[in-house]
Amino acid sequence: MKVLLRNPRREIEIEGRRRVHALLAELGLPRESHLVIRNGTLIPGDEELDKDDVIEIRPVISGGF
Amino acid sequence: MKCRTCRGPAIIELPRHNANFCAEHFLQMCRRQVEKAIHDHDMIKKTDRVLVAVSGGKDSLAVWDMLVELGYQADGLYVALGIGEYSEESREYTERFAAERNLKLTVVSLRDDYGYDIPTATKVTGRVPCSACGMSKRHLFDKAAVDGGYDVVVTGHNLDDEAAVLFGNALRWDVEYLARQLPVLPSRHGFPKKVKPLIRLTEREMAAWCVIRGIDYIVEECPMAEGNRHIGYKEVLNVLEEKSPGTKASYYLGFLDRMAPVLASIAATGADSVTPCVQCGAPTGGEEGSVCAFCRLVERSAAHEPVSVELVRKKSRSQKRVQAEASKK
Ligand code: SF4
Ligand SMILES: [Zn+2]
Ligand SMILES: [Zn+2]
Asked: Does residue B93 sit within a domain?
């Protein structure tokens, strides 16, 4: 599957199927600071991702004040 | 995974509520949290004219969207900070959001209206970018609220923001800051009332609100926030949150409930005499006939030749290296 990451914007390829939380854990991305989006829709942690999926993992932490 | 409310398929899990939600009921939960914050802290009256401080990021666009949905009369103010591409893009997101919804947006540009930008001001002051930036924004939001006859200024600070600031203040035991860290700043001495309706919602929830509502916002980080202390505090708090969901909410909301009242007497004893700035008329803490910090910043920064974002960032990185090496010795 294709995974779009942000800050900085980049794309990686992941082999095989995965559940969303397994993918986040594998990439070392905490659930509390990321959302996973497919075709403009949020997908929950227990969803199985297909090898043809294109997803975005969007960080939600912002700095400044 | 099923929605707690309707048992339909869920799209998001919220461990802190020990629940999952579908899109519709997630939005309903968010609205209720905002209404509860507004009600509990007496933030906004239905008849108030509201000015929302918008940045093009998820929080400020989401809070504007929610207030309009809830029937408040809310206009936006965007300050163009001149932070390169980041500022240009965030302005586009803000203008598009307002245009699509037919909302009134005012744009103030530091460069066009005051002759400087944040990278230049950072160079001139020699302090962290957020210092000149925060001061400029505060001044311009206050001014716009007073000039425009608004009753209240709304900012998009969320639970993570407030918990991180609280954590920083508590690490330093900065009692005066702790005493003043409240979700409502009443209007006084010519300063407008300021409120934070998102204190009961997390960053992740606000980003989810935007995705569900189809709000495009700037996802990229402000390039000048790099290494900002608050981001580190947020990461630490999120580690605790993952182990023990609800930690952030009980930390910050518990502070408001049980600690803020204890500190109230300290909050009341802050310096209270203000005089108008002789240049712009804004209230300032100085003596009779003094010039406010904003006017002084404008004067110094506008006289300096423009500095690029890249230059300031390079400098702050090399400064950090020097400091790191010095601390090793
Ligand atoms: S991160 Fe700092 S410099 Fe950037 S917009 Fe926010 S306050 Fe300004
Ligand atoms: Zn539902
Ligand atoms: Zn002034």
From this structure: yes
Q: Tell me if A29 is assigned to some domain.
A: yes
> Which pLDDT value is given to residue B316?
64
Q: State which of B118, B218, B230 you would mutate to test the pocket of ligand 1, scoring each by most atoms of that ligand within 8 A of its C-beta.
A: B118
- Reported as a single tens digit per residue, the pLDDT across B90-105 is 999 999 999 999 999 9
CATH number of the domain to which B64 belongs? 3.40.50.620
User: Residue A24 is part of a domain; what is its CATH number?
Assistant: 3.10.20.30
d(CA B124, CA B121): 5
Q: What φ, ψ does residue A11 adopt, rounded to 5°?
A: -125, 135
Q: Decide whether any atom of ligand 1 lies within 6 Å of the B224 Cβ.
A: yes
* Spacing, Cα B182 to ligand 3 middle (Å): 26
Q: Which residues contact B120 (CB under 8 A, 6 or more apart)?
A: B82, B301, B304, B305, B306, B307
Q: What are the pLDDT digits (tens) for A12-44?
A: 999 999 999 999 999 999 989 999 999 999 999
